[in-house]
Design goal:
This protein has 156 residues and is mainly beta. The protein has one helix and ten strands; from the N terminus they run H-E-E-E-E-E-E-E-E-E-E. The protein has a single domain, classed as PCu(A)C copper chaperone (Immunoglobulin-like, Sandwich), CATH 2.60.40. The termini are far apart. The structure holds copper (II) ion.
């Protein structure tokens, strides 16, 4: 009995250790969320995504916002406008940037203001070849309204 439990625990530990590494087909770099000013109810999350194989970002969720969408921003008749998109293609091995003025993850109906230095959980849903899906759990740093990291960041 004891051995059985031991085996079960080792299997669980092994799963914990190996799964995220094996499963992670998309890597995330330089993720950040723009901090908010009083009264602001929505903001954007930005990052660089690279897929090992052809992948697609198809959704996102966060406890910090009631509605989370994948958006693109484009110039239309001289005005920057943003729209929800069904997904963002991540061609194999090619870094795709979500950046101000373009693709972003939109956090709407924020639960509370986001201040520089906060960490916000963000879950990304990735679609892989064969309609497989994986989720990436991120903890994303909030920067200030201008996109600068929190002051004193480098003093820690
Ligand atoms: Cu948006």
């Amino acid at each position: 009995m004891k051995q059985l439990i031991k085996a079960a625990i080792s299997a669980m530990l092994l799963a914990l250790i190996t799964n995220p590494v094996l499963a992670q087909e998309v890597t995330v770099k330089d993720a950040w969320i723009r901090g908010t000013v009083p009264g602001q109810s929505g903001t954007g999350a930005f990052m660089e995504l690279t897929g090992k194989s052809n992948a697609r970002l198809v959704g996102a969720a966060s406890p910090a916002a009631k509605v989370v969408e994948v958006h693109n921003m484009k110039l239309e008749n001289g005005v920057m406008k943003m729209h929800p998109v069904e997904g963002i293609d991540l061609p194999a091995g090619k870094p795709v940037r979500l950046a101000p003025g373009g693709y972003h993850v939109m956090l709407m109906e924020l639960v509370k203001p986001l201040n520089a230095g906060d960490k916000v959980p963000l879950k990304l849903t990735i679609e892989l070849p064969g309609k497989r899906r994986e989720t990436l759990d991120l903890s994303v740093e909030v920067r200030d309204v201008k996109g600068q990291a929190a002051k004193g960041h480098h003093q820690h």
